[in-house]
Give the backbone structure.
Amino acid sequence: MLTLDHLAVACTDLAEGAGWIEDRLGVAMQGGGKHPLMGTHNRLLGLGDLYLEAIAIDPTAPAPARPRWFDLDRFAGPPRLTKWIARCDDLAAELALGPAGIGRPVDLARGDYRWRMAVPDDGILPFDDAFPALIEWQGAAHPARALTDHGIRLTAVEITHPQAGALAAALAGRIDEPRLSVRQGAAVAMAASFATPHGTRHL
């Protein structure tokens, strides 16, 4: 089974992306780190049982020999919520369930964190990037446990897709997450709502 692990806001400039989140949720993000294998860097915000990530291409890092994860090579425009990441206990077993194109397992590390992640060869996840990126954490260390708890909690995440029925069918029986919904729409989009000390906020 899959469990919602974190949400990702893509941006062309990390400081801009972090500021965009901070303006909307009312708290400062914490330092994340660099991902040399992918040529990216991030900042994080704890949400209790999960976390929010701002991620961008690191302009100081060499370009990787492969497409970057989260489809960042094609990303343009203002910061926005673009990805959701689901964790599992057995990445190989989840990959075997499909759909095609979820990616190949890649071993990664940042500081004390070790994980395996399915990264598509072209950087683009199934269903026009609306399918979750799959992650298997190695060991007990997890960012959500180390981040400051500002009392912000995810209350809903909505994925809009022109083939909502097919996406929902691909997820059926694989994740039990009452905060997650899939709805029909003309274009692919993601939106999330949060309970904060300042009231309900949205990305």
